[in-house]
Amino acid sequence: MGRIHIDLFTTLDGVAQAPGGPEEDPSDGFQFGGWQAPLIDEVVGQQVQDGIASMDALLLGRKTYDIFAAYWPHQEGGTDDSIARRFNRVPKYVASRQTLHLEWPGSSLLGPNLAEAISELRERHDEVHVIGSLDFVQSLLEESLYDQLTLWVYPILLGRGKRVFEDGAIPTSLKLLEPVVVSPSGAIMQRYERLEGRPLTGDMSARD
């Protein structure tokens, strides 16, 4: 059975909107598009490459798909060659309620029933990565349709913007899979596995 991996860049206060550039997602008057760019470093770049090395499918929301489709097909042979080759060769699935013309080779629309579509992807692939796609991620969080969550947490506060755990996260237990790694820019990679069942509670006052 395949696994669904969510990969996100986020600020310390949980904002994950438009890390890559000013025009990525300016909705709701967001003024900090491209907040990650001044803080990117080789350690994070290598972590991203290592993380997708065994990826055999890419699952994206419509906005992120449009950004990726306009960029990655033209990056082979450049600085990000290994990432470009991986993205360009694996199947791409797009979550959208609209009928889209998908020009990036290997792209197809996800089925309308999200739970069924994810189940089909698990049967078809070993490791499916959801990168960015923050609006779509909210649905995956709400319905617990993911297995692993990787966050790169950057040492800045933005106060406003779309957050990783906006409204869709339900009470969930997670397991830290490996020690956290801090990059030179202060970004902390945290990789978690989703566990079944709700978080446990107790009474600290009952301890001796």
UniProtKB/TrEMBL annotation:
Bacterial bifunctional deaminase-reductase C-terminal domain boundaries: 5-178
Record-linked Gene3D superfamilies: Dihydrofolate Reductase, subunit A
Gene Ontology MF terms: 5-amino-6-(5-phosphoribosylamino)uracil reductase activity
One Pfam family hit: RibD_C
GO BP: any one term: riboflavin biosynthetic process
UniProt cross-references to SUPFAM superfamilies, sorted A to Z: Dihydrofolate reductase-like
Entry coiled-coil feature ranges: none
InterPro entries: DHFR-like_dom_sf (IPR024072), RibDG_C (IPR002734)
Protein name in UniProt: Deaminase
Organism of derivation: Leucobacter viscericola
